[in-house]
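Notebook B, p. 112. Complex prediction, attempt 2.
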Amino acid sequence: MNDVKTAETVLRVRDLAVEFSLRGSVARAVDGVGFEVRAGEIVGMVGESGSGKSVTMLALLGLVPRPGRVVAGSVRLRDIELGALSLRELARLRGRQMALIPSDAGAALNPVTRIGSQVGEGLAAHLPELPRAERPARILDILKRVGLPRPEQQVRRYPHELSGGMQQRVAVAMGVQLGPDLLIADEPTTALDVTIQAQILQLLLDVREQSGTSILFITHDMTTVAEICDRVLVMYAGQIVESGPVVDVCTAPAHPYTRALLDAIPPLGGDPPERLTTIPGAPPDPRAWPAGCRFAERCRLREQLGNPDKCTSLAPELASDGAGRRSRCHFTGSAAEAVVR
Amino acid sequence: MLRYALGRVLLAVPLLFGLSVLSFVYVRLIPGDPVTAMLGVNSNPTVVAQLREQFGLDRPLPGQYGDWLAGVLRGDFGVSFRSQMPISTIIVDRIPATLQLAGAGLVVSLLIAIPAGVAAGMRPGSRLDSLITSATLFGLAVPAFFLGTLLMLLFALTLHLVPSQGYVPFADDPAQSLRLTLLPALTLGLAISPYLARLTRSAVVEVAQEPFVPFARAKGLAPRKISVGYVLRNALPSLVAALGLTVASLMAGSIVVEALFNWPGTGRLVTGAVTERDYAMVEALLLIYGGLFIVVNLVCELAQSLLDPRVRLT
Amino acid sequence: MKTQVAVLVTEPRPAARRRVPLLTTVGASLGLLVLLTIVIGPWLIGQDPYAIDIGNRFAGPGGAHWLGTDELGRDVASRIAYGARATALIAVGAVAIATAIAIPLGVLTGFLGGWVDLVVTRVVDLFFAIPSLLVAIGVIGLFGASVTTTVLALGLSYWPFYTRLIRSAVVGLRSRPNVDAARVLGASRLRVIRTEILTGLVPLVLVQTTVLLGFAILDEAALGFLGLGVQPPQASWGSRLAESREFILVHPELALVAGVPIVLAVFAMNLLSDSLRDRLDAKRTG
Ligand SMILES: Nc1ncnc2c1ncn2[C@@H]1O[C@H](COP(=O)(O)OP(=O)(O)OP(=O)(O)O)[C@@H](O)[C@H]1O
Ligand code: SF4
Ligand SMILES: [Mg+2]
């Protein structure tokens, strides 16, 4: 965990853009997203609903649903440029080098197929050389590894006969069984209750510990990010607005949006605040992004700075501070900090 | 599951009972009475009385119904007013021909409709989908006799590839029997496939929106595996139920196709019995067709629940 | 709020609307063509559909006989045009009968529920259990084949399925908030039925009317073909088929010519009902 900074890069995303064309209008749901994930790293991706997190991860997998389309960018997994692959090659890579853990395993598992055969499908698709006779042992093995109780019995069951937590464990098993370089977990715990959530998070940490798998962890919960992630990407309106090591970002957010997100977390243990700060206003329409800063309309810093023109006239760049942190705000830095405090 | 099945069966019983009452009352609705209808108005009164007694028409209705039902349950539908032969014998004679036609027609329509419906339903709104959807809208407008005439004109009268009409029992001459089945089965199958394709499409559209489909893609499964093992397999229960309803079109279609191709099945019997006012025969046929429809749908519903493991708990 | 389930697929795809105005245009033009045939066809053709000319049987198209002559030397075009009138009347009559049964029964059962619903629904189920062509054939068996019987038979064979549709639509409408609101505001049942339920049914009835008109044209033809519908020599699309069927091996073109208007008319109805359904669905979902 300490050496991630020097570890090799597993995933490199550059200038990714995804557009949905609907009845004449075009929504650029993901607009110039770029980031890296290093070996053994857990990277969190947070943002409000509709900020483009899921579409980004679907683009990584090459699974953006119609009428969506990846219009620009490059995705490199280790040394493979995914954009250059044929559909078949991409399919061969999915589930093997890059696997998805769905948010609601109960809905993502095939309801008519028994757990065992369902886990086996991945083996059959990606390891055709593995003799059929050896599959059951492999299946039991992986189910044991994800801590599924009594796997010998579960393999014969249907998904609906398992609890939500067990379903999620099965989904994790399907994700990790072929030792992928990258796991993409899209809100893998939202469908579960709190104790089970903690167990699944622990399971993901264990997977990383044991196999050194990198994880891209999508959530809209800052607390979870703080708990398990090494680095965080904050998404707003189809763009990354801030990124950096979790500890740094959480203690000293550079972007007003990140600050607002953190302010919205009810303090642990302490008294609940008089009013829970949710971020007032709504994100802009992806069919017509504003010309300047996309957060301008809701930005408190801008208000405190006396509504400078720059915010609405010029789109801020995602500027790097040279020490692994980036922020997309004209007024990032200590001057702004001073005003807010 | 057992309780579910039992419940379904119990639900079908009153339907079958109602159907039997309906068929029974049906004949009694005839203006005049069957014997006069059979012999004509100027018939000898003693003969009429004799026949009335023979058919039990002089007894109170509930009693008549009881006897009739008891007979029906033993497979005795009485005697045809026209030919004086036992109705069950006549019908049983015709059943192989109709089953052969309906079975072959069903196979043809499944072969056309399932792939078309899946292709359209997997990508709703795509060009292929609008093409298939328009084709089914047109297909629904083409009556079976029109289609059959076209096929007959083309393959039998012009190209002379197959005989135009006729029937040979399969047991007598399998090859010729199949050759003769070709056109009628193709006609019937093509006539039904638009319905079936639409049903398939909507079942597939529904399933294709389920999260397990994109997840299957994310697992890197082959497209074939996804459309068959995931989409079609999950659409199967509702498809099977829909298939039960299609049997009505199959029955109606086969009546027309049998007339067109001179196919000696039960459909010819239906038309014949109505034109000849052979009421007992009409009654028996209504009962058999209706009963078959109810039973087939019952079986389809049971199959539907067998195909969906989630039903077992409830 | 998005549901958890939707996360994987992001948003549920905006229900893919088939925007094919071309098909609507085709449907409307075909429908217009059929309407013109019915209204001015006989006058335009100017031939007597019943004038027999044995010396001129099976004449090909051309001259005074646009579509040739039939087995009795009658003008095929005018038989089709006059037949269109009969068929259209039968179709409209049949749909009217089915509607007249289905709406009151469907509204009654769907709105009242309770034992009325239970009993009527059982009866509907029973009729639903008999394939509709057989119901029609049964009716014809009772009264003998004729124009009136055909109307009655078709009307009676459509009501069970139509009643089911109306009933479930009414059940849906009844549970809408505006109906509750109307009841709370003290509107009587009858008033609620009139203002909320019946108006709510209009789109469904519109669509079903076109659908059933298509069915009725097809079924009139099928019955005619079987010799159970309109009886020759009376002109109708169905009876034309019955006449041509006897010569199907020698003159199949007569059967084809008799079938083409049926295909076109039903295709028009299918296209119109489909685009109507699309439009009304789109309106409902915003
Ligand atoms: N199928 C689709 N059709 C049209 N637009 C879509 C579709 N899916 C996503 N979008 C667009 O992409 C934007 C981003 O959606 P996305 O699902 O990535 O958000 P998210 O950050 O994952 O939100 P959530 O936290 O609710 O999961 C949406 O606001 C929408 O405009
Ligand atoms: S650029 Fe202006 S509006 Fe945008 S985040 Fe910074 S201060 Fe706020
Ligand atoms: Mg999402």
